[in-house]
Design a protein that fits this description.
93 residues, 434 Repressor (Amino-terminal Domain), mainly alpha, single chain, 5 helices
């Protein structure tokens, strides 16, 4: 079974929210004061962001940190449910 990487789900979620907001990487980078290269690495799931960096990015996207984390948590729960062996129930909180 392939491992679910939180950084990958986090990056995908950030990219989706950025695109939904109609913002470029550069715009989010400037608004969040996170370097363009680092932001790109986070979105691609290659780097893990600290809570401070996530807060800055979420704010730049017009999200609260709790809303961002909730979206990530929901995606993780879906992935876990899809990968759970038959007969084993995964409970999502």
């Amino acid at each position: 079974m392939k491992t679910i990487l939180i950084r990958k789900v986090m990056g995908e979620t950030l990219r989706e929210h950025r695109m939904a907001a109609g913002m470029t990487l550069r715009e989010v980078s400037l608004a969040s004061m996170v370097s363009l290269g680092y932001l790109s690495e986070i979105e691609r799931g290659h780097k893990e962001a600290s809570s401070e960096v996530l807060f800055s990015i979420a704010t730049a996207l017009g999200l609260s940190l709790s809303d961002l984390m909730s979206a990530i948590s929901t995606k993780l729960a879906v992935l876990e449910a899809e990968r759970a062996p038959r007969g084993r129930m995964v409970v999502a909180a």
